[in-house]
Amino acid sequence: MNAVTADEIRNTLGAFRDPYHDADFASVARVGDIAIEPAEQGARVRCEVTIGYPAEGVRADWERRLAEQLEALPGVAEATVSLAWEVVAQQPQRDLPHLGQVRNIIAVASGKGGVGKSTTAVNLALALAAEGAKVGLLDADIYGPSQGMMLGIEPGRRPEIKDGKLFVPIKAHGIQAISMSMLVDENTPMVWRGPMVSSALQQLLTQTDWHDLDYLIVDMPPGTGDIQLTLSQRIPVSGAIIVTTPQDIALIDAIKGIEMFRKVEVPVLGIVENMSVHVCSACGHVEHLFGEGGGAQVAERYETVLLGALPLALAIREQTDSGTPTVVAEPESATAALYRDVARYMAARLSGRSGGAARAAPRIAFVDD
Q1: pTM of the model
Q2: Who contacts 21 (Cβ-Cβ below 8 Å, separation ≥6)?
Q3: Average pLDDT of each block of 10 consecutive residues along the chain (369 residues)?
Q4: N or C: which end of the chain has fewer CB within 10 A?
């Protein structure tokens, strides 16, 4: 029996197709140490493959499929493949310096209110955490902060102060969070002019003691006015997501959001189409209440992608209002799976800016016991 070679193993692993990059592992992943243990009935092979984004939801399936492909090679009796990930910092717009221990800041924005931007932001943050990332959430909607309630943080709870100058983010459902709703009474209106809002947001961002984050999700204020433009210019953003609904008027505003980020050189990672379809809970009838296919058309027109289409479902609203968003309330549900799929797709798109996982030469070990 011919002995399997490290090159054969590497080529086989490299041919695996990453659906989120739409590319082979050879170009977007890194094959780590390869251990080959020869035996009369065929070698036992152990190796690790590293990708550039968290993927706990598909890890077991991909490990199994990769091992099966190796075991199909002549000379391999048994294979074990471990899938790992390494999230690296991507360059923010206009060479702005990175923020402390935050590797990547992702802005979640919408051209108008009422499209489910905040609900998408909190579920996306929780989905990234479920996929294995270290995640923070900044509620940048100063006028209408809602993330405190969505995360189930009791009214009146305030963040601790570190060294007399830094807010310690409040932890909820495994993520770090800060919001204006945690600093003022929830019934107090923020009657501020634009410069005051911009200043307050920058303080929340820079004076919070974020700890070792792969991603900081920023729930941006709705719209594309002076405040949003100023924030997009001053916050070191690695990428942005536009949330819209299929309605024509919402799509028009989504286009404005894309154009805004283009002006400040922030890459748009993709579009999330919210309230895309309604499935009747009584009979299962599927209906596109607000139109169909609009998000995909805008994505194609502006050379980005549709990251996912989320349903119009009563449960999403009820769970978020109760402080346990869908991803944590029903982690095995179809809707939670959609959010996690969007999170993987978005994170893969971001990692693709640097070509995927960081490259390093593998170590090959031939073990002869």
Answers
A1: 0.91
A2: 27, 28, 348, 352, 356
A3: 86 96 95 90 93 97 97 94 96 88 94 88 98 96 85 90 92 94 70 72 90 96 79 88 86 88 91 85 73 81 91 91 96 96 98 68 49
A4: C
